[in-house]
Amino acid sequence: MTESNNVKASEVSSASTSTNSRIATADQLHEQQLAQGPLLEVKDLQVDFTSDTGKAIHAVTDSSFSVYPGQWVAIVGESGSGKSTSAMACLGLLPGTGHVVGGSIKLDGEEISGWKPKEFVKIRGSKMGLVPQDPMSNLNPVWRIGTQVKESLVANNMDVSHEKRSKLSKALADTSVQLKDEGDETFIGSKELPQLLEAAEKALVETGCEGAKLEKAMADFRTDWVAGSETRWRVADDLMRYGVKDDDAWYIAKKYVTGSTMEDRIAGLLSEAGLPDAATRARQFPHEFSGGMRQRALIAIGLACRPELLIADEPTSALDVTVQKKILDHLRMLTDSLGTAVLFITHDLGLAAERAQHIVVMYKGRVVESGPSLEVLQHPQHPYTKRLVAAAPSLASQRIVSVKEHGGDASAIMEHKVDTAKLEANDTIIDVEHLTKEFKLPRRKELFKAVDDVSFKLKRGTTLAIVGESGSGKSTVANMCLKLLEPTSGKVLYDGQDIANFKGKSLLDFRRHVQPVFQNPYGSLDPMYSIFRSIEEPLHIHGIGDKKSRAARVRELLDMVELPESVMGRYPNELSGGQRQRIAIARAMALNPDVIVCDEAVSALDVLVQDQVLQLLNDLQAERGLSYLFITHDLAVVRQIADDVVVMQHGKLVEHGTTDQVFNNPQKQYTRDLLDAIPGGKLELGVDLADKK
Amino acid sequence: MASIEETPLLKVDSVDESAPATSMWADAWRTLRRNPLFIISGILIVFIVFVALFPGVFTRENPNYCTLENSLGAASSGHPFGFDLQGCDVYARVVYGTRTSLSVGILSTLIVVFFGSLVGAIAGFCGGWVDAVLSRIVDIFMAIPMLLGAIVVLQMFRTSESIWKVVLVLALFGWVSVARIARSAVLSTKNLEFNTASTALGSTPMRNLFRHIIPNSLAPIIVIATTSLGSYIVSEATLSFLGIGLPTTTVSWGGDISNAQSLLRTDPMVLFYPSVALAITVLAFIMMGDAVKDALDPKSRTA
Questions:
Q1: What share of chain A is helix, strand, coil (3-state, %, to 5)?
Q2: Residues of B with CB below 8 A from A524's CB?
Q3: What digits encode the pLDDT tens for the residues A609-632?
Q4: Does A603 touch chain B (CB under 8 A)?
Q5: Residue B15 falls within a domain, yes or no?
Q6: What is the pTM of this model?
């Protein structure tokens, strides 16, 4: 093999793992994908679960999709639509009583749907990897991170000293060069790394490289040449780029790149997944990692054996948006360079459209629409997809203008125009002044400042959104406004009165005017109380009306949240999340409050249901002049409902302005990062939404 | 791809009005009704309770009417189980013994559940030093082996002629396990959002405790109560067997087993009948406990 061939190989190969990967052109990629045929082909898949009573529950009734090598395919759908079930069926990992009853799943042309568990073991990890949903529970807390990566390598008998190429990247390389020497794929070992760097420096000096240029080259080498991740031909290639002669470069690469140990490989994998200081991190335990870091470790495990297909089941839905963006950006780069196909499961249409080339929309166990991402977004065919596109908050934030087309019924749709008149009026209902809350942490001397000097005003009849990521202190602020927590310093004024002074009767009176709606629709209703009792409880506590008038009031409230009277005799476990949240709103409205504090009130809901609840909140505000304190992590939702926005980070107020100001002209970097991270925020949508409803 | 006709769009988040309304209890009842374990144990328990209430229906013999001439007599018409060493009718003694065993079991359980859950609920709800003090007291009682403690205490009341002494002793050493369970149930219920919601609606802590927290903590307490009922019956038998339980004049399975132990090799049947009655009764309650646990806590279902 000649050196020039190797140079060429590095130009066309998509196999590099470094950040400046040179990826084959899109056309070449596409051609290769088609030439190789689908990697995974699911056709008319049917999956049943058996219920306690022995009845078959059809979780997936008709699911068909294909994943081509190196392609990102997203399955989008609400909870219960069968998206995860379809994907898990491909891995032979259906939970509980689930089993495939019909259709076919072909991997590389081979039918796998009827396989025994033993046969699946062979392809899991090595051909199909999985990045599970919840990073908190999917790492074993008693093993070190490195051990868990090792488990995957050992289970699949991976050669830790050589890179494994996917068929796609091989094929792409093959179009211009012949197959490379096996030895060229040898990893750098940590032992030889110092010598390698020394030799590289010497070689550079010999070519007459010095001063700043030499410094830069060496700095590049030090960051790029990661033991257990970079291979021999990459080293040679890097050297040649800095002017070392071909023969010398290959001599150095061959002499000093002789293969990595298991430890090197583990660290290499973790650093590929984006964990800094990977060798140290590999010796840590999961509890020492943040959620984002755990997800990176899971990605490292999923990709450890270089599968051709990675199934990512809502990999980032438990993480903050900014972390989500970073992780997905990194995963994209990684899978592109490895030629790995990704089956990406998500509930967020915006995210899917932004990340995947192909979107599959599932509804009630069926695939209702499938096509190239932009095509699906811009010309949705199925009414369900149309509905989804119209409701997705991340997409909605881009089309406030389209509201006007609706003319008369503009108030009925959820897009909300900032009410400047009310904001300017000097009619403050809740006034938060220099609010600070400190918590004592166990085993720590210094106090933890959860909220640090936060001030804002909520004007009557408007919505103020408090936005921040987890741990920003936004919920603590909400609880202090509700007088469920006492502030360490600062005060909350309700209608000009300090709420700290409320006691007994005046407190009861305050409770009547300020009501909460909590995040978790499954936790905020007492499971032992019927819906009637739940809604009636506030009336009961405040001694309002007699039995008959209370029952009438409950009916009225149910009607207000658009639920049939028949739910009165039911219990929370029979209702869906969105219905429970509407019950919670009805309960909050029972006492005719002025202020409702919504603590992540729509975060746990599916997009369409979220849309419905937001509309309800908006309608109630318009009808009754309610003021909302709306706590959320989701900036996309803010755009739909808020007039005023407060951005919080680490307990401090970062930015405060009207929604238009904050979205169109963010002042702080943090706000810009948050806005940037809204999935699908930058997608251009030319959708005709006239037939939205 | 499914066509539009095949997947009609439903109204977003519509309520299925046809489904019957079910509370947690109704749901549990539905599960129970279909559980063979529950049906078998239920029938057994109903039968046992009936025997305890109306022993006269099953036998005309007086269990305390013993004549030595019948000593170890074989089974005969009217005396299906034969006679014991004292010449008492074994069948009649087994029938009348049911009442003793059952009343000791039920009374002990009631007292234990009442005090145990009260202390546990207070400890869990108040937290802080109250919890610390109550929990340490529970720990102290936990450290005393129930039977050993019962023996020591009962030694002091050897002369008492009432079944209450056994009931109280069993309760004295039994309430701690219920207290622990109640405490942890209250602790986990206390932090659920519906309590915060209720507080924000204006309800007082006491209202929260009695209206929301305790009803939601009942399930594990009921489970442990049903299961431990059986074990109290065993404990009573054990104590009577040791001769420090019920007074000798009271007809009880434990006492009869104790009296019959010397006859194990010559007349095993005298020992056999009260033992079987005891075993069936205890088994019935433990099976019932299992069935109730399955119904109230679907997560712990075994199969």
A1: 45, 20, 35
A2: 193-194, 196-197
A3: 888 888 888 888 888 888 999 998
A4: no
A5: no
A6: 0.75
